[in-house]
Write a structure and sequence with these properties.
Blueprint lengths: L1 H5 L1 H53 L4 H9 L6 H10 L8 H10 L2 H9 L5 H9 L4 H5 L4 H13 L6 H6 L6 H14 L5 H13 L7 H9 L10 H4 L4 H21 L7 H4 L1 H10 L6 H11 L7 H8 L5 H10 L9 H5 L7 H12 L3 H13 L3 H13 L3 H11 L3 H11 L4 H9 L4 H11 L5 H13 L3 H18 L1
Helix pairs in contact: 2-3, 2-4, 6-9, 9-11, 11-13, 12-13, 13-15, 15-18, 18-19, 18-20, 20-22, 22-23, 22-24, 23-24, 23-26, 25-26, 25-28, 28-30, 29-30
Length: about 500
């Protein structure tokens, strides 16, 4: 202590110099790392500018494959593999370019290295790259960890390398959940038929286990991406004793079928696609499954089967005790194929559940004029207040009011006019008035509406007539509105 007290200036100066040297060292390290990083990225940009056009020319077919391959093989630098990955996988290739890209990755040795890394093997090129590349510190530290392995699995999926599917199936049992997740996505991208059943097995585990490693949603999304012909392998799942597995399997097939039907409205399933056992399963077993979710999800699939038993089976589901089963069934029947059975669909307009009634209105609206006739007839005949409200709302939501107004002008006093009068008595006039206002150029429509409905006590109609009487530019129309107001006043007195 006496020494420190007597030489305090020297000690403080020594500490200051040490701190200054430490700070200068840190600044030097930062500047050195920044310089190395700038040189690294400059080298990447240079290689991209030099070899990027070559790769694009090979993929587009503008350059001979052998010539382009030889040029890319000339890339020689400490981080060659990293550079090749950046060049080949920087942009997602077009479907027509994928075969060429796969071949390039194979001939350049990338696929072999990705496969080795996925299986946890350390290749000499990876070791050399990790030791030489100053930017490869993270890869050097985590060489045997999941980052490189998961990236390799992802790369194999990006180029859709089909021969790698057995390795990716093995990765489904990897201790690391991230690698399992990437393997599932890569298998979904490759879509090899041999990987479908292993994914289904993983799905069973995820459904039955209390804390699954892979989520049901992830596996379901992967299985749905496979072609519909692979759905035959779900037959054991449809027979599984656990209702949750039967539900997920049915839902996967439903999404597959709806995807195919979205591209082809006339799409029908036959035994060549589904197989005889699968068709019988959907017609005889699933509509009567103890799980209502299974029954509901089976309806859209049944609606696309090419079988004479389809309509009777769906009509059975229309009587199901669960409202959402009836909902899915009505929605499935909204297809021109079932136009001859439109009257059976119209019977669900009195369903106890409002969602089913709303869906029935939309289904009938999709049948065109035949469906509109059924809707209007039901609306005028039914005594069910809830059904009338639902159909009236459906008229507005499905855009049927303009059509009814146009028919009212043509027929004068037909069924459409009766429907509009009932709507006016129910107070559902705002949409009718908005249609009239949007079509100010149609004088006949406005005059007809004014004559038919101008005296109704509805406040919205009365306000519209008052505006017509004060602001209408057409003299005859304004006079008719004033006369209507006067007649309405006399009736009230």
């Amino acid at each position: 202590m006496p020494f420190l007290i007597e030489n305090v200036t020297t000690v403080v100066l020594a500490f200051f110099i040490l701190a200054l040297l430490g700070n200068l060292s840190l600044v030097g390290i930062v500047l050195l790392r920044r310089r190395r990083r700038d040189r690294f990225f400059a080298r990447i940009d240079g290689l991209r500018e030099q070899y990027g056009p070559v790769l694009e020319a090979v993929l587009s077919g503008c350059t001979a494959y052998a010539q382009g391959l030889e040029t890319l093989r000339q890339i020689s630098c400490p981080d060659r593999l990293f550079m090749l990955e950046q060049l080949c996988l920087e942009k997602r290739p077009a479907p027509a370019q994928e075969p060429v890209l796969r071949r390039l990755c194979e001939d350049l040795g990338l696929v072999k290295i990705w496969q080795q890394r996925l299986m946890g093997q350390i290749d000499q090129a990876s070791l050399r790259e990790a030791l030489v590349n100053p930017q490869g510190l993270l890869r050097r530290v985590k060489m045997l960890q999941f980052l490189i392995r998961s990236k390799s699995a992802e790369n194999l999926g990006l180029i859709r390398h089909e021969p790698s599917w057995p390795l990716l199936v093995k990765a489904l049992e990897d201790p690391n959940p991230d690698i399992r997740m990437v393997a599932v996505r890569s298998l979904a991208a490759i879509q090899h038929p041999g990987s479908f059943v292993p994914l289904v097995e993983q799905l069973h585990k995820s459904v039955l286990e209390s804390a699954p490693v892979l989520s049901v949603r992830t596996l379901k999304t992967a299985l749905v991406s496979f072609p519909l012909r692979d759905a035959r392998d779900l037959l054991p799942s449809l027979r599984h004793p656990d209702p949750r597995i039967r539900f997920v399997a049915t839902d996967i097939i439903r999404e597959m079928v709806e995807r195919e039907a979205a591209d082809n409205p006339d799409f029908l399933l036959d035994q060549r696609i589904m197989g005889g056992e699968m068709v019988e399963m959907f017609l005889k077993n699933l509509p009567f499954d103890t799980n209502p979710d299974v029954r509901a999800r089976s309806a859209p699939v049944i609606a696309h089967l090419a079988d004479q038993r389809v309509a009777p089976t769906l009509f059975t589901l229309l009587e199901d005790s669960a409202w959402f089963v009836r909902l899915h069934t009505v929605r499935s029947l909204a297809n021109q194929r079932f136009l001859p059975h439109a009257s059976r669909i119209a019977a669900t307009l009195t369903d106890p559940n409002w969602r089913v009634r709303e869906t029935a209105v939309r289904a009938l609206r999709g049948f065109g004029r035949a469906g509109v006739d059924l809707l209007t007839l039901h609306f005028l005949a039914t005594k069910d207040r809830y059904s009338r409200e639902q159909v009236a709302d459906g008229f507005q939501r499905t855009g049927l009011i303009p059509e009814l107004l146009a028919c009212c002008v043509e027929t004068g006093n037909g069924r459409e006019t009766a429907v509009l009068k009932n709507l006016a008595e129910m107070g559902k006039t705002s949409y009718m008035i908005s249609v009239i206002e949007r079509r100010k150029g149609n004088a006949e429509l406005r005059r007809n509406f004014l004559m038919q409905f101008g005296r109704y006590p509805d406040p919205q109609i009365h306000h519209w007539v008052e505006q017509m009487a004060e602001q209408e530019s057409d003299f005859d129309m304004r006079a008719l509105a004033q006369e209507t107001l006067a007649a309405h006043s006399r009736e009230e007195m």
